[in-house]
Design a protein that fits this description.
The complex is a heterodimer.
Chain A (H helix, E strand, L loop, with lengths): L2 H12 L3 H11 L1 H18 L1 H8 L20 H4 L16 H37 L1 H16 L2 H18 L6 H16 L1 H14 L3 H8 L4 H37 L11 H8 L8 H28 L9
Chain B lengths: L1 H27 L16 H11 L5 H14 L1 E3 L6 E3 L6 E2 L4 E2 H36 L4 H15 L2 H15 L15 H35 L2 H8 L4 H29 L3 H6 L5 H10 L3 H29 L1 H5 L1
Antiparallel strand pairs in B: 1-2, 3-4
Helix pairs in contact in B: 1-12, 4-5, 4-7, 4-9, 4-12, 5-7, 6-7, 7-9, 9-12, 11-12
The chains are: A mainly alpha, B mainly alpha.
Chain lengths: 323, 329
């Protein structure tokens, strides 16, 4: 009688998909789960920003000159933190920092997630096409990838930011932030797809020779079935790890661009703008540097820890899961 | 091996050709009129047209590209009369905004960027590899955990935030260092060092974090190989085994990644240079973006691309030399 439950248990694990197995392992890693909640918290704040700002009664755009002294610096200590302004006010304008922090999370997260999703989708698509079609299609995609990688991408993103945004505006994209956002997402996709495509191409090239794909094909399966039912389920773990590992870089990119003055422009609430602005004040008002910088650090750290947790859970070669 | 090197170099030249055409095309397709940018807001149209002809912006795209490429090899004179400006080879264009040949502007930044890149590279390779090795050898114990924490926090720090923090702590709060102001190493080596030590450390912390992980995982992977077990079985001292066999095998792939990272850094540590106000290639780019100085932007993009492509080629050739399997492909 005792053998039966072990057999059952064995059958049960055998029936789990790689996805379910990974998820089960992920839930065991405490740090990864903790990071998951940090990231979820930031997403919650970003999605419900208008409501949260209303509830906390902090307006990210209202100028409060009464909180500033004659030099334009916050009157109170620590950037004039008070019940009205829990994290103080911005020097120069007197706008509420908490409100701007809450709204600023939206830009970082939109660029982080949409940028990653777009470049991943593009990469997976091109990788599958290259791996399945092979021949000249594969060569063409690979060579285009080589060219994309030969460019100094950050330099080009910065150099083209202003003129390309103007061009998008002249094509009818709404002026200002929408055009800038479109530009950043587009150029991230143009430069960001290559590594994902290479990874997927390699996987597809080896998977297509495997028996189960061969079997499906011999039953007359179409390309759609091959891609969605045979290939993609086996690619998911790799894609998830890759997405998780590239997210943190994209999240801090918005702040980097705005910090350098080629991203979004005030009065838009962005962490990078606040940090760039804080350079002028950080002798007098250190809190203004630490608050947006700390928020960005916690968010990126959360994403990185989440990525580590996911990699440990989904990558069968990862060594830490045995510890 | 000769065939491999030739093929790889040929590929690099083709790649550079395509990249240069693309760069040229992107910047010439921008809505900004490069001729109109050559003189200020209250400019007469005659002057704009004269400058357009002088800089060759009135010619068709391919002809512009051709004369630019020719300029790189034989130098180029802008304008035909006596007022023409000659830029010696390799001419990367003429910046009207600064009234200077782009090549000499770029040349001035190279020592700065090279100083930053070299120092940071030495620091990060040293700390990355030694901490990574240490972590791998004490796997699962506290050094491993500590280096893991260090690397995940280091990777997460946005570079400009870390840079600003370091200025705040070491310059403003404790006054250990003066505010970074770059001077050439030949002028005043001590000042050169004090200006660069913070940028080096900041870049090193960020990159070392990645290299700690790469080294640690590389070593752990190699430790599972048969030849390591053979070494243990035949009684090789642990030290010899690690240094002579394990590290050598584990570091080869890391060296190739390092070469490419170094090339990227040579193309201008844009963020670090602007945080620490260092007059390098990245700072030149940012200034050119603000002034819409297109000739400089084309040049910095091309120079960085050359670094990347050449580094890739060198790394591939070295890798082929070290690992015969690569050559066969």
């Amino acid at each position: 009688m005792e053998a039966v439950p072990t057999l059952d248990a064995g059958l049960e694990t055998g029936g789990l998909s790689p996805w379910q197995l990974g998820l089960r392992r992920f839930k065991k890693g405490r740090l990864g789960l903790f990071a998951f909640w940090i990231v979820t918290f930031f997403f919650f704040v970003a999605i419900f920003a208008p409501i949260i700002v209303r509830v906390l009664n902090v307006d990210p755009y209202a100028l409060d000159r009464a909180s500033l002294n004659d030099y334009g610096l916050p009157k109170g200590p620590l950037g004039s933190m008070s019940w009205n302004h829990p994290l103080g006010v911005e020097p120069g304008t007197g706008r509420d920092i908490l409100g701007r922090l809450i709204y600023g999370s939206r830009l970082s997260l939109i660029i982080g997630t949409v940028g990653t999703v777009l470049s991943t989708a593009f990469g997976v698509l091109l990788g599958i096409v290259a791996g399945l079609r092979r021949g000249w299609v594969d060569s063409l995609i690979s060579r285009i990838g080589d060219v994309a990688l030969a460019f100094p991408s950050l330099l080009l993103i910065i150099a083209l930011a202003n003129p390309m945004t103007q061009r998008l505006e002249s094509w009818g994209v709404p002026k200002g932030n929408t055009a800038k956002l479109t530009y950043i997402l587009a150029i991230l996709t143009i430069f960001g797809w290559v590594y994902m495509a290479r990874l997927v191409r390699g996987q597809v090239l080896s998977l297509r020779e495997r028996d189960f794909v061969e079997a499906a094909r011999s039953f007359g399966a179409g390309t759609g079935h091959l891609v969605f039912k045979q290939l993609l389920p086996n690619l998911w773990p790799q894609i998830i790890i890759f997405v998780a590992m590239s997210l943190p870089g994209y999240v801090s990119l918005e702040a980097t661009l705005s910090f350098l003055g080629v991203g979004f422009q005030a009065p838009t609430a962005s962490w990078g703008i606040m940090l760039g602005d804080s350079v002028r004040y950080y002798r007098a008002d250190t809190a203004y540097l630490f608050i947006p910088g700390g928020a960005l650090l916690i968010l990126v750290l959360g994403f990185n820890l989440l990525a580590d947790g996911l990699r440990d859970a989904f990558d069968p070669r990862s060594d830490r899961q045995q510890l | 091996m000769f065939y491999f090197i030739t093929r790889r170099s040929f590929f690099a030249v083709i790649l550079l050709f395509v990249v240069s055409i693309f760069t040229f095309w992107i910047f010439s397709a921008l809505p900004a009129d490069p001729a109109a940018l050559t003189c200020g807001k209250n400019c007469r149209p005659e002057v704009i047209e004269a400058n357009r002809a002088r800089l060759g912006y009135d010619k068709p795209f391919l002809e512009q590209y051709g004369s630019y490429m020719k300029g790189i090899f034989v130098g180029r004179t802008y304008g035909e009369d006596e007022s023409g400006v000659h830029c010696a080879a390799p001419s990367l264009g003429y910046s009207y905004d600064r009234h200077e040949c782009v090549t000499s502007l770029v040349a001035k930044t190279i020592p700065v960027t090279a100083s930053i890149a070299l120092g940071a590279f030495v620091l990060w390779m040293f700390f990355g590899i030694s901490l990574g090795t240490f972590a791998a050898l004490r796997r699962g114990k506290w050094p491993d955990h500590l280096s893991n924490v260090f690397s995940v926090v280091g990777i997460s720090f946005p570079s400009f935030f870390l840079g600003l923090l370091s200025i705040l702590v070491f310059v403003i709060w404790t006054s250990i260092l003066p505010f970074p102001q770059y001077v050439g190493i030949t002028e005043n080596p001590l000042k050169w060092l004090t200006a660069l030590i913070l940028p080096w450390c900041v870049l090193a912390v960020l990159s070392a974090s990645t290299y700690i992980r790469l080294t640690r995982n590389g070593i752990l992977e190699v430790m599972n190989e048969e030849f390591v077990r053979l070494g243990i079985a035949k009684g090789l001292p642990r030290r010899t085994l690690i240094v002579k066999y394990v590290l050598r095998a584990a570091l080869t792939p890391i060296a190739t990644i390092a070469g490419i990272d170094f090339a990227f850094l040579l193309g201008g540590a844009i963020v670090t240079e602007s945080v620490f106000n260092l007059p390098g290639l990245g700072k030149l780019t940012i200034a050119a973006v603000i002034n819409s100085d297109l000739p400089i932007l084309v040049a910095t993009t091309l120079v960085s691309a050359v670094f990347i492509v050449v580094a890739n080629a060198i790394v591939d050739i070295l890798y082929g030399y070290l690992d015969p399997r690569v050559r066969a492909k």
